[in-house]
Specification:
Number of helices: 19
Number of strands: 18
Structural class: alpha+beta
Largest sheet: 9 strands, mixed
Radius of gyration: 22 Å
Helix content: 25-40%
Distance between the termini: 44 Å
Shape: globular
Length: 509
């Protein structure tokens, strides 16, 4: 297996060297994406790393896994569970890859303890932008090790990672805590993250004055009288709807036992709650029967494909931001007043990891003049203004509000900053020094990778009557949505959901 990996990396390095000799920028083709940003791939500007999709070793003694970057979360969890282990931070969407979690930014419900996903990486192998193959750790080339995290491939290509693992359990005992205000939600989260018995903490706001905080504990047994609940099958409820029902029917905390894999990927069906907007768009009834019928199309792999193909990423507010706990109420008040949609996701995040191997993240530490140990992630996902200029203005105003609250945003989604605004936040000085040191100055910058070039969009429409006509055509309901669904269907993404060997056999209730 390692010989095959070495051959694949050598091929990648050779192609990168050819680009480097001509000082030509390139794009990295992974084979899939869970980003909402479009990528301008052409055959002449691509380095194909889609072959790097293997798990090379699970080491039970050191509790680590050696994995290539294109391995998705569901396959990683499936393999590590064979050894009774699981990654400490697992992205909730099964199609997100290891490389995507490292090069992007991924904070999940265990991140209050372990930090972002990239903080659980022990070492990395990279092909630098000049074609050299190197490894980096917190001791050897630590600037590269820290800097590559959340750099979106702008320093080179990550080709191998060793990740920390923890002991797995069969179930998560999940407790739903009703809350009646943002202040109560933040207080409940703060208390939960200080409780050493909690392994997972996140929350959902269903309205400004109604929500739930979910706290989970890994366990091998189900206490007598505790209900077992699943979320991965077509007839199971979507998690957010089930959580809402749990707090609607009880004023106090309630607890259920959830099989570990069902918990880790509980937001896959419905893509948190974004799938609800797909039902609204097509005018379909939104009930348990229709969700069951369309279940294969409501998985995140399919929905991301459809989002890209339909162009609807330009129509929906898709922002993940983090603010100090003290600013959470002001942020939610802003979203409530301006966007007027719910639910919103709440997730506490530790800026640093829990082990000496945990990366700090070059860019993560540059997002605040006074970095705080704990931040509150707020997921803001919903429909935006219909007119393009109004949509852009709404996103820019939101980004400014986050800055005013001393927060930051994650860059997997669209970024509407000007270049000057962007680098004032993310600190260009050290980043440019790294790019020069590791021969990457000819590659696109981080800003190039994540920006939305509104002026270029408008120029293209003005200069091409064909593009203008196409824009009018795709604006006619429901053509763009139907096209996105058709392309996702033809791509076969709806066939990817499968029953893994570790799917539990528990009694339905």
């Amino acid at each position: 297996m390692m010989d095959g990996h070495a051959d694949a990396v050598a091929t990648i390095a050779d192609r990168v060297k050819r680009f480097y000799r001509g000082k030509q920028a390139f794009r990295i083709y992974h084979g899939s994406t869970n980003s909402t940003r479009p990528s301008p791939y052409r055959r002449d500007n691509v380095v194909d790393i889609s072959r790097l999709s293997h798990i090379l070793e699970v080491d039970r003694k050191t509790q680590t896994v050696l994995v290539e970057p294109n391995v998705p979360m569901d396959r990683l969890v499936e393999e590590t569970l064979r050894y009774g282990l699981v990654p400490p931070v697992v992205m909730e969407f099964p199609g997100i890859t290891v490389g995507g979690g490292f090069a992007g930014t991924s904070g999940e419900s265990s991140s209050f303890r372990y930090g972002f996903f990239d903080r659980t990486v022990v070492w990395i192998e990279m092909v630098l932008a000049n074609g050299d193959i190197v490894t980096a750790t917190s001791v050897d080339k630590p600037d590269l090790f820290y800097g590559a995290a959340a750099s979106f491939g702008t320093l080179g290509i990550t080709t191998l990672l060793r990740l920390e693992l923890i002991e797995a359990k069969n179930f998560v005992a999940l407790t739903y805590h009703p809350v009646d205000s943002v202040a109560e939600a933040v207080q409940t989260i703060e208390m939960a993250t200080k409780d050493p018995s909690n392994d997972y903490v996140d929350g959902i706001l269903f309205a400004r004055h109604r929500g739930v905080i979910c706290t989970g504990r890994l366990t091998d047994s189900v206490d007598d009288g505790l209900r077992t609940q699943r979320f991965s099958r077509a007839h199971d409820p979507w998690f957010y709807l089930h959580a809402k029902k749990a707090v609607d029917r009880s004023r106090g905390p309630t607890t259920e036992a959830i099989p570990l894999q069902d918990y880790l990927f509980r937001y896959d069906r419905g893509c948190f709650w974004v799938g609800m907007y797909a039902f609204r768009y097509f005018g379909n009834p939104f009930n348990r029967v229709t969700r069951w019928i369309l279940d294969s199309f409501m998985r995140t792999r399919v929905m991301y494909h459809a989002l890209h193909e339909s162009g609807h990423a330009k129509k929906y507010i898709i922002q993940d931001v983090a603010v100090p706990y003290s600013a959470a109420e002001a942020l939610v008040e802003y979203v409530d007043r301006v966007f007027k949609f719910y639910p919103l996701w709440l997730c506490p995040l530790r800026q640093t990891g829990s082990s000496p191997h945990s990366a700090h993240g070059l860019l993560a530490l540059k997002t605040s003049a006074e970095p705080r140990e704990m931040l509150l992630n707020v997921g803001v996902w919903g429909p935006g203004p219909r007119r393009r200029r109004d949509f852009v203005s709404a996103n820019r105003a939101f980004e400014q509000k986050v800055r005013d609250l001393h927060g930051t945003k994650w860059l997997y989604a669209h970024a509407y900053y000007t270049e000057e605004e962007f680098w004032a936040i993310y600190g260009r000085g050290e980043y440019d020094l790294l790019r020069a040191k590791y021969h990457a100055t000819h590659l696109p910058t981080l800003y190039d990778k994540v920006k939305v070039d509104v002026e270029a969009e408008e120029r293209a429409l003005q200069q091409s009557w064909r593009l203008s006509l196409l824009a009018i055509f795709w604006s006619i309901w429901p053509l763009s949505g139907m096209y996105g669904a058709f392309r996702a269907t033809m791509g076969g993404d709806y066939l990817l959901a499968r029953r893994a060997w570790w799917s539990p056999k528990v009694k339905d209730e």
